Amino acid sequence: MKISEILKQVKRSISFEFFPPKTAEGEEALFRTIKELEFIHPTFVSITYGAGGTTRERTIRVVKKIHTQTNLTVMAHQTCIGHTRKEIIDILSQYKEIGVQNVLALRGDIPQGQEETFVFPPDGCRYANELVSLIRETFGDWFSIGVAAYPEGHPESPDLDTDIHYFKKKVEAGAEFAITQMFFDNRYFYNYIEKLQKEGIDIPVIPGIMPITNFKQIKKFADMCGATIPGELIQKLQAVADKPEEIEKIGVDYAIKQCEDLLKNGVKGLHFYTLNKSKATIEIYNHIKDLL
Ligand code: FAD
Predict the structure, then answer these.
(1) Which tens digit of pLDDT belongs to each residue from 63-94?
(2) What are the residue numbers of the active site?
(3) Which domain holds residue 161?
(4) d(CA 80, CA 104)
(5) Residue of the nearest CA to atom 11 in ligand 1?
(6) Which of 88, 155, 157, 248 gives 226 a disulfide partner, CB atoms 3.0 to 4.6 angstroms apart?
(7) Is the CB of residue 108 below 6 angstroms from any atom belonging to ligand 1?
(8) What is the DSSP string of 190-248?
(9) CATH code (residue 262)
(10) Ligand 1 atom nearest 19 alpha carbon
(11) How many domains does the chain have?
């Protein structure tokens, strides 16, 4: 079923993001995680795609397996960077063939060190709005299309208003909902939504929640995507830097408070970056389920 339709029907959406594992053991572990999370009845689950096609076969396989072997609604992430239009159409045609109707249309990151020199294929899509247009032109209304949103602005953008200007182009091209980059201070999200409303953008924007379970890893992710970790939280995490269980407890407690605040402020849903694990997400869910 199309996510855009489901979002119209449900009061709140809960969704999970997974990445396609490299090994057969990793894939088995992923499907165990999916089983453990099934009781939450997620609105949808999504599978990431390695920019430039690095996970092409794995993403397609996992999306197909979820679609054919579970009752879950699945969304395939699709990046355009490094692909020709034909390659993108070929991949999405495979989804259409088996009945998958949801895609998150992304540009993907420019490979590190190539920011100045990267050459976009002349017959490819340079930005995500072009990918959204390509999907609409090729497949009409078959796919419900989601896009990425950045409450703190995309790292390449000179400022938030410029980023919102380009975000609007994705909506005008046919995007029906958006999922945000992780953020740890809800004020960025509320400010962002206010700015979108001023621009007349009213598609559902679902906050992406990353429960902190590993300090080093989260610092690296946050640096890469430009997400601010509040100073107070960093200090708390630093104080227990060599105690993984305490890091996870602080991270999960923080995410619970963040989600409670978002739900009280009327968000349409929550999208959890699970990193293919279920424990933190289940703990958070158990604390917030009465607010859903
Ligand atoms: P765009 O919307 O194209 O924006 C990229 C930059 O260009 C922004 O700075 C924007 O302001 C600017 N811009 C946009 N359009 C124009 C234009 N027409 N002219 C000039 N400037 C423009 N990456 C992966 O590789 N695989 C994934 O599976 C994946 N999943 C993600 C899921 C979510 C929810 C999010 C938030 C991000 C995800 N990413 C993923 C990361 C994403 O690919 C990167 O953040 C990438 O750098 C930008 O992708 P985008 O689709 O937001 O690009």
Answers:
(1) 999 999 999 999 999 999 999 999 999 999 99
(2) 17
(3) 3-291
(4) 11
(5) 163
(6) 155
(7) yes
(8) HHHHHHHHHTT--S-EEEEE-----HHHHHHHHHHHTPPPPHHHHHHHHHTTT-HHHHH
(9) 3.20.20.220
(10) 28
(11) 1
